[in-house]
Design brief:
Number of strands: 30
Helix content: 25-40%
Largest sheet: 8 strands, mixed
Radius of gyration: 27 Å
Shape: globular
């Protein structure tokens, strides 16, 4: 049996998608339909059913009664009817990679936000027909048969976003496999360069894994003011990027890094995955402690792929690594939350940051990428360059194919690491302490020790000056405290996020004046800050501390040995 959806957008300015579902039913039993509460790859309950309106069901021309069972489930009383038609509208005016957006310029949707599913029948084939304004065309990763786009099952449908409109289309091939780039919006992009560089990213990632696991791939790119983000799918991706973010060169690198990151997910997440991530439960949270593998390892490889593709230099790559190290070291939360905890709590923390997030948590993207770096270098060192994290990822792909159950929580990834190293030397294959300290615990990362394997010397500098320990922001002409670091003097003095700073030692300040006056002081000096907390005027005294190092250079040592230089060359190339 098939389940058929017709998605219409007769009045794009209304932001309402018109959805019709036609299906066969056994009759004499109630029929339940539900809309997912989340989109795979974006781990937050978003309750898409809140945008549904004008729900109805019928058998032919005969209306059928229905009721809501919970926030996301409708129950239809079908009687003896065996052919059911369901109709409803969905409001779509949130432009992000994980939601849907309809206006006069295009209709973009993730099927999880529009297409209700039938509990117990998600394994059936699902067909989708799109009805657009006359001059629009449709781009999606799903195969088209006649007027229908065909998904093998509901998971496949949810994993296939649609871009409908007058977007530009560009094409290239790798290994005879067609790739499409659909671009909505305009800015300062160079489309020829985008196509060329994207092809190199595809080719370089293919070389790592030994082939492409799809027969067609679609890149959907949305260009908006200030936008950034991506969401991976099995043979497509949606990336949103700042329309003016393609220049200067370092800004363009951010686009390349996003492209590389999301494309690496073709393997890591969409094929290699922990057991809880597929088949999915769309009714609520799907918990895993392994998101650091899915996102952190991918974050490690996204820039490394750019280097191997010749899109950035080795010097630039080391600078990016240094910047990531500085970011993590500036987060006191690294001493409180482990990678495993961060992965598990993504549903309540990562997508809901607040002024205390840096003090209480870490990003499994950021720290996960740095732990992957240390793991790769550790593997290379223990095996004298014979094995690497590349080999681990290839082994994961072989051991846990896409149609399988995924790797076990808690030890599956470690098992493959140890097996890969053990192929070379069983005596050095135990990574228990590494995973206990860096993944299950909050041990400080030993950057110097790991980088020494490849002859790199971390050189810390900056800092040493007077420091107040606050991150500030200007808000409607007022100098506000955005964040108070838990390891800084402002925290100890009792300054809050949200306080408005107005004077230092009795003299009015703005952000520049505060920086200049603090720059004239020394660590251990005492200062008096006058501030508004809500509507109350307060004086707070604090003792300035010594600023932590805020510059890091990763330098290849002049005295690096031949073995270190060989490991360095191998790391950057394969």
């Amino acid at each position: 049996m098939t389940i058929q959806y017709t998605i219409g957008m007769p009045q794009p300015h209304s932001h309402l998608f018109h959805v019709v579902i036609e299906l066969e039913h056994s009759g004499n039993t109630p029929l339940d339909v539900a809309l997912p509460v989340w989109t795979p790859g974006s781990y937050l309950v978003r309750d898409y059913a809140r945008h549904v309106q004008q729900f109805s069901a019928a058998a032919g021309t005969t209306p059928l009664p229905w009721e809501k069972l919970d926030k996301t489930t409708w129950r239809i009383t079908t009687g003896t009817a065996t052919r059911i038609t369901i109709r409803y509208l969905v409001y779509a005016f949130e432009l992000s990679v994980r939601t849907s957006h309809l206006d006069a310029t295009h209709g973009y949707f993730n099927p999880a936000t529009l297409c209700m599913y039938l509990p117990g029948r998600t394994a059936e084939t699902h067909h989708v027909r799109i009805e657009t304004p006359a001059d629009w065309h449709v781009t999606t990763g799903l195969a088209q048969v006649g007027e229908w786009f065909v998904a093998d099952d509901y998971d496949h449908l949810v994993d296939s976003p649609f871009e409908c409109g007058t977007h530009r289309l560009f094409h290239f091939q790798v290994d005879g496999i067609p790739h499409e780039i659909a671009i909505w919006g305009h800015g300062n992009e160079d489309t020829d360069r985008i196509v060329s560089d994207t092809r190199r990213i595809v080719e370089t990632t293919r070389d790592m894994f030994g082939g492409l696991p799809y027969t067609r791939y679609v890149f959907i790119i949305h260009l908006t003011d200030g936008g950034y983000g991506g969401l991976e799918h099995r043979n497509s991706v949606t990336n949103i990027f700042d329309r003016w973010g393609f220049r200067p060169e370092h800004a363009y690198e951010r686009f390349l890094g996003l492209t590389s990151h999301e494309f690496y997910h073709v393997w890591n997440v969409k094929r290699i995955r922990p057991a809880p991530l597929g088949p999915f439960d769309y009714r609520g949270e799907n918990y895993t402690r392994e998101l650091w593998v899915m996102e952190g390892v991918t974050s490690y490889y996204d820039d490394l792929i750019l280097l191997r593709a010749g899109l950035i230099t080795a010097e630039r790559y080391r600078a990016i690594l240094a910047d990531n190290i500085l970011k993590l070291q500036a987060q006191p939360g690294r001493q409180l939350q482990s990678l495993a905890q961060s992965s598990f709590d993504t549903w309540i923390k990562f997508y809901r940051p607040d002024e205390n997030s840096d003090n209480s948590s870490i990003s499994y993207y950021l720290k996960g990428g740095l732990v992957a770096l240390l793991l790769d270098l550790e593997i290379r060192s223990r095996t004298a360059g014979a094995r690497s994290l590349d080999d681990v990822m290839r082994a994961m792909l072989h051991r846990y194919p896409a149609e399988g159950p995924g790797f076990a929580e808690g030890h599956g990834f470690r098992d493959i690491v140890e097996a890969t190293v053990g192929e070379v030397d069983e005596q050095v294959a135990d990574f228990g302490d590494f995973f206990a300290g860096y993944v299950g615990g909050t041990a400080e990362l030993d950057y110097a020790g790991a980088l020494a394997y490849v002859g790199i010397v971390p050189q810390w500098s900056g800092g040493g000056t007077a420091w107040h320990g606050m991150r500030l922001k200007s808000e409607h002409g007022k100098l506000k405290v955005a964040l108070v670091r838990a390891d800084g003097p402002a925290y100890q003095a009792g300054i809050y996020a949200g306080d408005e700073l107005v004077a230092l030692d009795g003299i009015r300040i703005d952000e520049a004046r505060l920086a200049a006056r603090i720059g004239e002081r020394k660590p251990a000096d005492r200062v008096r800050l006058t501030l508004f907390r809500r509507d109350d005027l307060l004086d707070v005294e604090l003792t300035l501390a010594e600023a932590p190092a805020d510059r890091l250079d990763l330098v290849v040592g002049d005295d690096a040995s031949d073995q270190q230089r060989a490991l360095y060359a191998g790391w950057l190339t394969r």
